[in-house]
Design a protein that fits this description.
Blueprint: E1 22-28, H1 36-46, E2 51-57, H2 63-72, E3 77-80, E4 94-95, H3 97-102, E5 107-110, E6 115-118, H4 120-130, E7 139-143, H5 147-158, E8 162-166, H6 170-184, E9 189-191, H7 196-201, E10 205-208, E11 234-237, H8 246-254, E12 257-260, H9 261-277, H10 283-294
Parallel strand pairs: 1-2, 1-3, 4-6, 7-8, 7-10, 8-9, 10-11, 11-12
Antiparallel strand pairs: 3-5, 5-6
Helix pairs in contact: 1-10, 4-5, 4-9, 9-10
The structure holds NADP nicotinamide-adenine-dinucleotide phosphate.
């Protein structure tokens, strides 16, 4: 379904690059499966912008030099992905409020005087949810306690949700809950996956931030089956490849409301586009580029 390596992906950039072309891109390591080049290059093209988006594989040992170099080369901004989302904070000037709370950034903007950091994973997660439900006052179960869970949990706690974090390693769930309590003075419940049945029963929103069901393991057993879900429960799987995961199929079977991780990918990218260019992102074009890329078109 998806090409095996980034090299085989068409980056969607068939334009002539000149000295006037404004550069953006993504830094991470390894950078094998990023769909962001297709999404952003399609958006630049649709708006007739002389901009391009380039993947830059950057090893952890080269991060500081890379950030300085990107700035010196007049790059407008970059996305930041694993493993640099936290470590890059050391090399940037200012961080917006949400990113500062979370302690991680996924978007940098190079300005004349400074380098600004943002966390559009958090705003993207929220926007995708707010398309289908109201977050304020809702009861949210988050499965997983890694980087994506952290961005979602902080953002939802800030927006007035009652958050419970369940993880394979309960100690990591506890650590995240304590970080949120320390930063926001909001109590967050936590535990292991054995609490899934009891917690899901009373929940409004279930967010799976684990890689379970991700390509090429699409047939793995989902962490929550249909019999534990109820009608109206919002089931949000952050996995976007495939767009329709086994968890989302279970949600449909239960009459729950499925939300694909593709929505978060789209909205985090759209927000980064807006931050860099100040222009309204062409969402339809960006979504189509993502779907085409996943289908190998
Ligand atoms: N849609 C989007 O825009 C978007 C954005 C960011 C991330 N994501 C997706 O979110 C997922 C997680 O990313 P991440 O950066 O948070 O990764 P991460 O930091 O490695 O965290 C992964 C979490 O999943 C748990 N986990 C891993 N394998 C598991 C398994 N087989 N069964 C149960 N739990 C398991 C881990 O538990 P332990 O703590 O016990 O190891 C950990 O809590 C990935 O699939 C990523 O592609 C999507």
């Amino acid at each position: 379904m998806e090409p095996e390596t980034g090299q085989e992906l068409d980056d969607g950039c068939d334009k002539l690059i000149t000295g006037n072309t404004q550069l953006t891109g993504i830094i991470g390591y390894p950078l094998t499966h990023s769909l962001s080049p297709q999404m952003h290059n399609a958006a630049f093209k649709a708006l007739g912008m002389d901009w391009a988006y380039v993947p830059f594989p950057v090893k952890p040992s080269g991060l500081e030099e890379a950030v300085r170099g990107l700035r010196a080369l007049n790059v407008r901004g970059v996305n930041v992905t694993i493993p640099h989302k936290e470590s890059v904070l050391e090399y940037i000037g200012e961080v917006d409020e949400t990113a500062s709370l979370i302690g991680a950034v996924n978007t940098l903007k190079f300005e004349d005087e400074t380098i600004m950091g943002y966390n559009t994973d958090a705003s993207g997660c929220l926007r995708a949810l707010e398309e289908v439900t109201s977050v304020d006052g809702s009861s949210v179960i988050i499965l997983g306690a890694g980087g994506a869970a952290r961005a979602c949990a902080f953002q939802l706690a800030v927006r007035g949700a009652s958050v419970t974090i369940l993880n394979r390693t309960p100690e990591r769930a506890r650590a995240l809950a304590e970080d949120i309590k320390g930063a926001l003075d909001i109590r967050v419940k936590y535990g292991g996956y054995e609490l899934i049945p009891a917690c899901v029963e009373g929940a409004d929103i279930l967010i799976d931030t684990t890689p379970v069901g991700m390509y090429p393991h699409m047939d793995d057993e989902p962490l929550v089956k249909a019999e534990l879900m109820h009608e109206g429960l919002v089931v949000y799987d952050l996995v976007y490849n495939p767009p329709e995961t086994c968890l989302l199929r279970e949600a449909r079977a239960a009459g729950a409301v499925p939300v694909s991780g593709l929505r978060m990918l789209l909205y985090q990218g759209a927000e980064a586009f807006r931050i860099w260019s100040g222009r309204e992102p062409p969402l339809d074009v960006m979504e189509k580029a993502l779907l085409d890329a996943l289908q190998g078109v």
